Amino acid sequence: MDTEAPHTQRGHSSSGTGEERPRSALSRSGREAERRPAAEGRRPVLTWRRAGLLGVICTVFLLLFSNFVVQPFLIPSRSMEPTFAVGDRVLVNKLAYRFGEQPRRGDLVVFDGTGSFVRESSGGNPVGDLVHGAVSALGLAEPSDTDFVKRVVGVGGDDVVCCDAAGRVAVNGVPQAEPYLYPGDAPSSVPFRIVVPVGTLWVMGDHRSQSRDSRDHLGEPGGGMVPVEKVIGRADWIGWPLSRLGAAGGGHG
User: Fold this and answer.
1) What pLDDT, on a 0 to 100 scale, did the predictor assign at position 183?
2) Would you state the pLDDT for residue 168?
3) pLDDT at position 180, please?
4) 79 catalytic, yes or no?
5) Alpha-carbon distance 172 to 196, whole Å?
6) Read out DSSP for 170-224?
7) How crowded is residue 188: how many other Cβ atoms within 10 Å of its Cβ?
8) Are 223 and 187 in contact (CB under 8 A)?
9) Coil, helix or strand for 99?
10) Which residues make Cβ contacts (< 8 Å) with residue 146, sequence separation at least 6?
11) Which of these, 150, 152, 149, lies nearest to 106 by C-alpha position?
């Protein structure tokens, strides 16, 4: 009797434990199975919402970044060859002149030509302008018709002459080497002599025979001079295509 009682107790205890554990496991599995379809049904909706929200946040960030720091600028013409080629996307440094520094000779600047290279516009489609401006700010479309990229040849107070006895542009009596010119191009086919007013710039393209620049606006109001306040930034880098990735070719005189 002493030996049977422990055996019977162990059997009841083992049997009880064996019955309780499967019921508990089935209960948990059942609850998980009930919850799983609902959770799986909601997951794609949450994923798409998060993806959409992330896309909006990224777009807003890029627009703010391009508006205040660095903006991609699509090169639409041959006027700056060989420095910039058609289709290049240059990165415009908008902080270059924001803290007191002024454009220097040789700088590659992007500027708003309204009032100097193009006449003031009487108006347009605000919505279309807004959309185009946003797409241009991301470097996905050609820039506005009023935006230009040129090289600074003369700054305020400079006496710029073309051409000297050797056919070169001279600034304050000093001939400019201009190694960035398109091969075979003359410094200018149009002779000129100007004194750049303070607060303005005299700008020219590197492909002089293909560039409409300050020379083409000599007889117009403003005389082809670009106000410094109209400068958007300095084109410091080529960001695309990858084969041309790197710093833009500047040349300071």
Assistant:
1) 96
2) 96
3) 96
4) yes
5) 11
6) EETTEE---TTSPTT--S-SS-EEEEPPTTEEEEE-SSGGG---GGGGTTSTTTT
7) 19
8) no
9) coil
10) 112, 113, 114, 117, 118, 121
11) 152
Question: In whole angstroms, how large is the CA radius of gyration of the chain?
Answer: 34
β-pairing, 170-171 with 108-112?
A: unpaired
DSSP string, 104-168: -TT-EEEEE-BTTTBPPP----HHHHHHHHHHHHTTSSPPPTTEEEEEEEE-TT-EEEE--TTS-
Contact at 8 Å (CB) between 85 and 241?
A: no
Q: Is the peptide bond before 126 cis (omega within 30 degrees of 0)?
A: no
Cα 24 from Cα 56, distance rounded (Å): 47
How far apart CA 123 and CA 233 sit, in angstroms, is 25
Tell me the mean pLDDT per 10 residues along the chain, length 253: 45 46 49 52 64 73 66 93 96 92 96 89 55 52 79 98 94 96 95 96 98 93 94 95 88 63
Domain boundaries, the chain: 1-68, 71-247
Owner of token pair 């309780």: 20
Q: Would you list the DSSP string of 9-51?
A: HHHHHHHHHHHHHHHHHHHHHHHHHHHHHHHHHHHHHHHHHHH
- The active-site residue, picked from 66, 94, 116, 150, is 150
Q: Which CATH class is domain 71-247?
A: mainly beta
Please identify which of the residues 79, 136, 188, 214 carries the catalytic annotation: 79
Bridge partners (DSSP) listed for residue 170? 161, 175
Angle at the Cα of 218 from the Cα atoms of 213 and 219, rounded to 5 degrees: 135
Decide: 192 and 201 in contact? Cβ < 8 Å: no
3-class secondary structure, 97 = coil
Catalytic: 230? no
What pLDDT is recorded for position 27? Answer: 52
